[in-house]
Amino acid sequence: MTHTRTYQTPAIIIKKTKLGEADRILTMYSPTLGKFQGIAKAVRKPKSKLSGHLEMLTYAQVTLVHGKTIDTIIGGQTINSFLSLRNDLDLISCALYMAEILFQFVPEETVDQGLFTLLLSSLECLPFAKDRNQLLRYFEMHLLQGVGYRPELSNCVFCRRELAPITNAFAPSAGGVLCPSCIKLGKHYAYAVSWDCLGVMLFLQEGDLESVLATPIETTVINEIERLIRSYVRHLLEKEIKSIAWLNSLKQNDCCH
Amino acid sequence: MDKAQPLATDAVNRLIQEFAKLPGIGPKSAQRITYYLLRASSEQAQSLSDALLTLRQKTQLCSCCYNISDADLCIICRNPQRNPSQVLIVEQPQDILALEHMGIYKGHYHVLHGAISPTEGVGGKDIRLNELLARLSESRISEVIIGTNPTLEGDTTAMYIKRLVTPLGLHVTRLARGLPFGSELEYADDVTLSRAIEGRQEF
């Protein structure tokens, strides 16, 4: 028999759900398998050998055995536990947001090495990023591109003409930016987008992580982009990303203190 | 399920369906328990139904710590022997049972009834944190011990509590995290090991 019963893959744990008394179903993201699920038996017991290696947002080498409906995780060895993320409330909240938005957008068992590298490098860079929000926007822009929802930012989505350096409008339902004359047709709900903001969005979309993190961007522009991407994500998923409420509540808390 | 049990009576089906709603009990186990109860003595069935009714009628949440209680204040909050200056924050009432079994801790508790889980949409307002803050600002508590689970959700909750409680000027501690008794070092993960080294003590 050539078919092996077990297989190994490096993977980042992006979601966990309790199952029964002491088990968990884990959703992992792997460079070779994409998004896939496995059942981790007895990991909620204190003496479980695997539990520490299979916690949320751990990058681990996992071993699984094929099952009838779902595979069982029988081994796990941490590659990177992102310790510096875990000791900071704001950082871990950002990391959870990245895991959730990736989980929502990526279909099961679709392999995408690029998206895996995006997640891994973003998690690695998060503790060192001067502006976490800038990194989150970079992550969102590249995730959208990776899953085929890259917003059109250079030409008007309708008339295909190159956008003029004036205030245009971002229409989530059109998948990109409309020029002032096409907005007047009134077919799509759109948000005004300044020329500066559009330039930064293009930079986030096309730049690499290193150059994005090294370039200071004004907070007002980053906040404007956040609002636009959120509305686009809401339109695509037809629901909210749950951890946004938590990120907002942390922001409000900061304002209170 | 209806297809599978055309012969059972309505009463039997109803009980099977009720049992199947319980955590960890599937349709087959529900069927087995129901048929066992049909054969068991009527006293046993009566005793089970009494126990179920009493559970809901005679228990409530303690108005101070939100533990399961038989009166307005739970047995721990009522006990004058316990140290009122310490409060240990736990996620679930079951955690108190484990800590009380050990018998070393003599302070009070606070049950959150959950942990912050941003990806599940559970935030600070969904667990009993406001009640904790109200309690901390009114009573004579001087030390807050955070006893949330050593999971990502437990850690997130702990860090959030620390952020909320620190401005009140209280002493905030967290249950030590490290190697469990009876385990082996070679299987320990990085997070546990790093915390075991950070939290090492004079021997």
What would you say about this model in short?
Chain A is an alpha+beta fold and 257 residues long. Chain A has 9 helices and 8 strands.
Provide an overview of this structure.
The complex is a heterodimer of chains A (257) and B (203). In chain A, helix 2 runs antiparallel to helix 9, helix 4 crosses helix 6 (195-206) and helix 6 packs across helix 8. Chain A has 2 domains: 6-81, Nucleic acid-binding proteins (OB fold (Dihydrolipoamide Acetyltransferase, E2P), Beta Barrel); 84-256, de novo design (two linked rop proteins) (Up-down Bundle). By secondary structure, chain A is of the alpha+beta class. Helix content of chain A is 40%, strand content 22%. Chain B is an alpha/beta fold and 203 residues long. Chain B has 2 domains: 10-57, Orthogonal Bundle (Helicase, Ruva Protein, domain 3), CATH 1.10.8.420; 76-198, Dna Topoisomerase Vi A Subunit, Chain: A, domain 2. Helix content of chain B is 43%, strand content 12%. Chain B is built from 8 helices and 6 strands; from the N terminus they run H-H-H-E-E-H-E-H-E-H-E-H-E-H. Chain B has helices at 10-20, 27-39, 42-57, 75-78, 93-102, 129-138, 152-165, 190-198, and strands at residues 60-61, 68-69, 83-90, 107-111, 143-146, 171-174. In chain B, the strands form 2 sheets. Chain B has a 4-stranded parallel beta sheet. Chain B has a two-stranded antiparallel sheet with strand order 1-2. In chain B, strand 3 (83-90), helix 5 (93-102) and strand 4 (107-111) form a beta-alpha-beta unit. The longest helix of chain B is centred in the first third of the chain and has 16 residues, at 42-57. The model of chain B has no long low-confidence stretch (mean pLDDT 89). The chains are: A alpha+beta (257), B alpha/beta (203). The A-B interface holds A 15, 20-21, 46-47, 49, 51-53, 55-58, 78, 81, 83, 86-89, 92-93, 96-97, 99-100, 103, 242-243, 245-247, 249, 253, 257 and B 23-24, 116, 118-121, 123-125, 151-152, 155-156, 159-160, 163-164, 167, 180, 182-183, 187-192, 194.
